[in-house]
Q: What sequence folds into this?
């Protein structure tokens, strides 16, 4: 592991993508990190991003703008980089960052294929830098609580079925001009942008087992202006596992906001209606449902029997929200003797399943 020269991890942002503003605020509210530089393809764009973010959530020291990604990577005062560049560009710049000794937090998918991702992880390992993808819900305090419920043997019992859905309805401008509708930048479309979270949750719930078979269907495509090929805009898949669990997911750019997971077992089920982006408030949680059917002569009744479990955690912006936790987890990994490779393994497994369902749907 490359040592940090100071108590704080100094972050550089490669791109001024919209999600970077959320992570700017998260870093401003961590104990061990700060944004030190922002790079864009021109200096004015980088400066505007800094000005806008400083006006909304100021860092103590104003970050430095760069007119190219390469110039930021060459700055010895940067310890780690956050990379929200389009998927088609991520492999190139993650590898470049690792070769410059920068730790990497990258948006997902981190590469176009599992083979490319393995190259990325190999370079990160060779250069002793930490790699992690930007799946924020993995850092919510809800997950350890949910794992305890799933493993207690009585709330859900042996798991039989996992179903999950993540969608939003993109408007006409999104369908025509957003990079997520352009195969040059985001060839996986909704599968990469939204389905990644579905797959990650299924794998996490089922103890990181990999499916033994998959079937999938691309239900709808979008082809934005200038896109050489259509991209998946509505996608569904079915996964089977060797422990008897089956799982399905649906992701869409054409269906109104939903982001739920339902976990069924022999003794009950768990319902989480906001597993990706927590609903506004200061608590996150889930429902355990154990319905009871009662029949007495001619009377038949189904009783819902719901228990609510929650933990104090803000949906966004204030500790301990999941995006702040994500950076603090990353910073904690930097204090180890060697990089924590488990995060890269999670990314690789997610990418492998994404590749499998993409191919099964005939998208390649």
A:
């Amino acid at each position: 592991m490359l040592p940090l020269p100071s108590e704080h991890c100094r972050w550089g942002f490669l791109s001024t993508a919209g999600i970077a503003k959320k992570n700017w605020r998260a870093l401003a509210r961590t104990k061990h990190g700060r944004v030190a530089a922002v790079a864009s393809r021109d200096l004015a764009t980088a400066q505007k991003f800094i000005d806008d973010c400083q006006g909304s959530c100021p860092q103590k020291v104003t970050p430095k703008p760069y007119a190219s990604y390469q110039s930021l990577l060459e700055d010895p005062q940067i310890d780690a980089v956050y990379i929200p560049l389009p998927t088609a560009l991520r492999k190139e710049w993650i590898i470049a960052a690792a070769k410059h000794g920068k730790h990497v937090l990258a948006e997902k998918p981190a590469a176009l294929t599992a083979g490319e991702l393995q190259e990325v992880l190999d370079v990160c390992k060779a250069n002793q830098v930490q790699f992690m993808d930007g799946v924020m819900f993995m850092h919510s305090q809800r997950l350890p609580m949910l794992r305890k419920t799933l493993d207690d043997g009585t709330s859900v019992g042996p798991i039989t079925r996992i179903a999950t859905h993540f969608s939003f309805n993109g408007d006409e401008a999104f369908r025509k001009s957003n990079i997520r509708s352009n195969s040059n930048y985001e060839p996986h479309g909704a599968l990469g942008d939204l389905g990644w979270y579905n797959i990650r949750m299924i794998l996490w719930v089922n103890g990181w087992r990999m499916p033994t078979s998959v079937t999938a269907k691309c239900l709808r495509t979008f082809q934005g202006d200038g896109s050489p090929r259509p991209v998946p805009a509505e996608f569904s898949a079915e996964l089977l596992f060797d422990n008897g669990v089956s799982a399905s997911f649906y992701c869409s750019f054409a269906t109104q906001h939903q982001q739920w997971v339902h976990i069924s077992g022999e003794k009950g089920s768990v319902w989480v209606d906001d597993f990706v982006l927590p609903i506004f408030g200061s608590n996150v949680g889930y429902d355990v449902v154990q319905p009871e059917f009662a029949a007495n002569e001619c009377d038949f009744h189904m009783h819902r029997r719901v228990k609510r479990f929650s933990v104090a955690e803000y949906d966004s912006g204030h500790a301990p929200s999941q995006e702040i936790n994500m950076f603090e987890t990353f910073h904690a990994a930097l204090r180890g003797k060697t990089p924590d490779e488990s995060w890269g393994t999670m990314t690789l497994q997610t990418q492998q399943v994404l590749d499998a369902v993409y191919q099964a749907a005939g998208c390649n």
